[in-house]
Design brief:
The chain contains 16 helices and no strands. The chain is an all-alpha fold and 483 residues long.
């Protein structure tokens, strides 16, 4: 696979992004395994912690607003290091919160920079993957880095269980996570930031705005094509008088100008039409990410409490099921990393999402005597099924629309809205309806079905956009030749 950059610097960057996503996964998913301890500490019941999911999602949305600009305009690794240092400080302070307000404020402060890390990591790994030259490298790397998020999510309940049983202090998991976050920040201070693929060459024209470059390209071709035409016209009309020659030349020029203007208008119309499928594709991917990431976080955050409160399992069994979910999630992303070398992003989504649907359906059978086995199967199927979502939705979008920091930041913000909304819906159903925590499985089932429906719609808009881009390119290629 061809990668932008050379040697150990590129490999170290990939390792740094992978480690930052491992830490990111621990941060996002440590609340669930420590929910009972935190609730006891601040004097509330577990469903009341649902407000923290809301605060985290809102903070993530706010943090997404400047994330694209920061990634596109400022030294990338300096931005990443600053965000990670801020998160490290926040996690070190979480165990000292003694009421729900302070606890929510501490989590929300950390969540402000989550989307900066997410946007920067995904954007830079796409740049290194250099998708224009080698799509398989892009698919492999973005799935691999996001697999480390799953590894961090898997580590969260394991670290929480270790701290609870071996250190007799479950909240020590926050100090460990904070220390790992600080180490990630230091790594980025030592490594150079990557550059967009189009800036990796020395072509001077690529340093100009796209519109200016296209206009200059068109102007140069127009001049080079017009001069031979005028010479041929003069040679053919030598017997004619100067007056007739001039008149003939003016008439031909007028006809050619009219024809060129018509073709230019057609090309402009095609360019405008491209906006509709492009925006529609972006909206569909945004809806997909909202549901996918929101359900991923909701299930990881509530399945431990579900196992204890709804299924009547022990704390150890709850931690085991939570870890099983994130282990399957991580394994799914590792498999997707290698599968992406030969399979398209949409194919991976079509293959994975039915597993998540089956997992949510299996969990609705937990009234059976084999409740633990059914829940284990559910966690594994949902973990595998949801794992390919975000990374491959981003890769699918990048197939048709190049992903900048701004686009990735926008999608990250909407994913943050999902992290706020979906877990809150589960908490409301648990506290105020007869479904109780079984609402987690119903919400998951509906969400996964909707996600699967988004994939063919996104493909349809993408293919329409590609067709319009082909037509516009044909117009641009033909336009200079007719003058």
């Amino acid at each position: 696979m061809q990668l932008q950059g050379r040697g150990w610097v590129t490999l170290c960057n990939i390792a740094a992004y992978s480690f930052s996503f491992l830490v990111f996964g621990m941060q996002v998913n440590l609340l669930g395994p420590t929910a009972s301890v935190l609730a006891t500490r601040v004097g509330v019941i577990e469903p009341d912690l649902g407000v923290i999911f809301t605060i985290n999602g809102l903070a993530s949305i706010i943090g997404a607003l400047p994330s694209g600009w920061l990634v596109d305009k400022l030294p990338g690794h300096a931005v990443l290091a600053s965000a990670l240092a801020f998160e490290a400080l926040g996690f070190a302070l979480i165990p000292y919160a003694y009421n729900l307000t302070l606890l929510a404020a501490a989590f929300g402060s950390v969540a402000l920079s989550w989307n900066i890390v997410n946007t920067a990591g995904n954007t830079y790994i796409l740049w290194i993957g250099n998708a224009d030259k080698n799509p398989s490298a892009q698919g492999f790397l973005i799935n691999l880095v996001n697999a480390l998020f799953g590894a961090g999510s898997l580590a969260a309940p394991i670290v929480a269980e270790f701290c609870s049983t071996q250190l007799s202090q479950a909240l020590s998991a926050y100090w460990i996570t904070g220390a790992l976050t600080a180490a990630s920040a230091v790594a980025f201070l030592l490594l150079p930031s990557p550059t967009p693929p189009q800036q990796a060459t020395t072509d001077a024209e690529q340093q100009q705005p796209l519109t200016e470059g296209l206009l200059r390209h068109h102007s140069d071709h127009t001049q080079s094509a017009a001069t031979p035409g005028q010479q041929d016209q003069q040679q053919a009309d030598e017997p004619c008088s100067v007056a007739l020659n001039c008149g003939s030349g003016d008439s031909a020029a007028a006809e050619e100008a009219t024809d060129s203007a018509g073709k230019a208008a057609d090309a402009s119309s095609t360019s405008i039409l491209q906006g509709y499928p492009a925006v529609s594709l972006l909206v569909v991917i945004a809806v997909f990410n909202f549901l996918n990431v929101g359900t991923e976080v909701a299930f990881g955050g509530w399945v431990f409490t579900y196992a204890i409160k709804q299924a009547g399992l022990s704390t150890y069994e709850g931690h085991f099921l939570n870890a099983s979910y994130w282990a399957a999630f991580t394994l799914g992303r590792v498999i997707a990393s290698f599968a992406a070398v030969v399979l398209a992003p949409a194919t991976l989504l079509f293959a994975s999402l039915p597993l998540a649907i089956a997992g949510a359906a299996v969990a609705l059978l937990t009234h059976s005597d084999a409740v633990w086995l059914l829940l284990f199967m559910s966690c594994v199927l949902i973990g595998m099924g949801v794992s390919a979502g975000f990374a491959n939705a981003l890769a699918l979008l990048d197939t048709y629309i190049p992903c900048t920091g701004s686009i990735t930041g926008l999608l990250g913000g909407l994913a943050g809205a999902g992290c706020m909304t979906v877990p809150l819906v589960v908490a409301v159903l648990a506290k105020h309806t007869a479904l109780q925590y079984q609402g987690l499985m119903w919400v998951s089932l509906v969400s996964f079905v909707a996600q699967l429906a988004c994939v063919p719609v996104a493909l349809a808009f993408g293919k329409r956009l590609a067709a319009l881009q082909y037509v516009q390119k044909a117009h641009e290629d033909l336009l200079p030749a007719t003058i």
